[in-house]
Amino acid sequence: MPPEFRQLLERAGAGADAVAYLHSLAQRLRALEQDPQDDHDELPLSRWEIDVRFPQLSGFGVNWVYGGEFPTLAEFLDAAIRSEHPYCREFLAPLAAEAQSALVLFPEEQAMREGLSPVVRWATPQGVARRLLRAVDDHMEREHGVLP
């Protein structure tokens, strides 16, 4: 094994025997492949997984929501969209994709409240996530001629 791999293996295995650790890891992977029944409700995403999976939604909250600059949802959505126009496609497309993905992964209010909202506090399925998608769609149709 290359020294870098051995060092990473020792760190990941928390000092356990490298061969035993790899065998244990392989067994767990095989078990997951054989029984992929677990759902997001049963296996909630950790904080770092949400940060990695939803960086645009997290950043949107930091940049537009948490500062309290805008008193209403409509005002901060409008300000965020206008701030990027006419180059908003690069900003809005990944943001909308993440909002849609969040709605698919956490379709019910409770699931999103437990799975996503602890990290992305402003995101709720009935509230901001759906309204964000509507605002993006409305802007793209109005300003960029995207068909509904």
In round numbers, the mean pLDDT is 78
Number of strands: 0
Coarse shape: elongated
Radius of gyration: 20 Å
Tell me about the largest β-sheet.
none
Order of helices and strands: HHHHHHHH
* Tally of contiguous helical segments: 8
- Helical fraction equals 55-70%
- Ranges with pLDDT <50 over ≥5 residues? none
Distance between the termini: 55 Å
Helix/strand-derived category reads mainly alpha
The share of residues in extended strands comes to under 5%
Description:
By secondary structure, the protein is an all-alpha fold. Helices cover about 70% and strands about 0% of the residues. The protein has helices at about 5-10, 20-35, 45-55, 55-65, 75-85, 90-105, 110-115, 125-145. The chain is elongated.
What is this entry, summarized?
By secondary structure, this protein is mostly helical. Helices cover 69% and strands 0% of the residues. It has helices spanning 3-12, 18-34, 47-53, 55-65, 73-84, 88-105, 109-115, 125-144.
